[in-house]
Amino acid sequence: MTDDGERHEYMATGGGVCGSLGEALLQMAAAMEAGIEEAAETDIVEVLTTEPETMKLAELTSRLVTHCKCLAVGLGEIALAERSSRALGALRDWEDVASADPEQETCYDATTDLGYARMLALIARNLLTALREHRAAQPASGAFVGRVGLPPITPSQAGR
């Protein structure tokens, strides 16, 4: 591989780490998704099983709000007809909490900081569980990914 042309040909024929851009993107997405889920799960367990000090609790609460926002977006992408009752309930709970104005709504005034964080953790846990259940219920797919050197399969060939 002395000149640039040989290097590009080598990479184009699958000589790199991944055989195709689609494969690389799929691997990246799976790794990112797993990392996000793992971080959310770690924060959920910590809030539900410990009593963190004030500064740590503030950081956890902030991260839990972020986890809930991200997970709610993911569940929102699922067609309404395909959402489980857990997903519908978790999204409803998140929308209630996210839309609440603590200065005007007294139902959240009595909630302690730890209680609020634990409420967020329970919502995040339900959102995460609903996403995982939906993913597990989906048939294994990949007819359009990982066919290096072959043309893509049409939906009729894939049996859809």
Write the layout of secondary structure elements.
Layout (H helix, E strand, L loop, with lengths): L3 H9 L8 H29 L4 H23 L8 H15 L13 H25 L23
Salient structural properties:
mainly alpha
Structure description:
This protein has 160 residues and is an all-alpha fold. It contains 5 helices and no strands. The longest helix is centred in the first third of the chain and has 29 residues, at 21-49. The N and C termini lie far apart (44 Å). The relative contact order is 0.13.
Mean pLDDT: 77
Distance between the termini: 44 Å
Helix count equals 5
Largest sheet: none
* Topology order in helix (H) and strand (E) letters: HHHHH
Molecular shape: elongated
Task: Characterize this entry briefly.
The chain has 160 residues and is mainly α.
